[in-house]
Amino acid sequence: MNLFKKIGKSIAIAFSMYSKIPMVQFEWKEEDMRYSMCFFPLVGIVIGLLSWCWWLFCQQFGIGKMCFAFVGLAIILLVIWMAIWIRWMRFILMEAARKSWKS
Fold it and tell me: What is residue 70's predicted lDDT score, i.e. its pLDDT?
């Protein structure tokens, strides 16, 4: 079971480092990062599969190429914006908790 936990943490670290796909938050340790490089191709495969599924959806329903590009770009920007917003809100909440703890 310990091996599966290490592999799961390594996958989460790889996705956290090289994608904006939200992942479980935990404290990174050196032993957890040991195998994360092995899963970098998996990050690319997942992002490629998501793009391919969007392309298939557009082909199935006759969505034009411009709409495919614009909506695909909008999805990417939305995911990036959500990731930044979540981290920013976490920072604001942590600062508020820190200030209230000190007073």
Answer: 86
CB atoms within 10 A of CB 22: 12
Residue 17 CB: number of other CB atoms within 10 A?
Answer: 15
Q: Read off the tokens for 33.
A: 């990062």
Compute the average pLDDT of residues 63-76.
Answer: 83
Rounded CA separation 6/23 (Å) = 15
Q: What is the per-residue DSSP string for 23-57? A: -------HHHHTTGGGGHHHHHHHHHHHHHHHHHH
User: What is the pTM assigned to this prediction?
Assistant: 0.61
> Which pLDDT value is given to residue 61?
87
Contacts 24+ apart (CB under 8 A), 29-38: 31/6, 32/6, 34/6, 34/10, 35/6, 35/7, 35/10, 36/10, 36/11, 38/10, 38/14
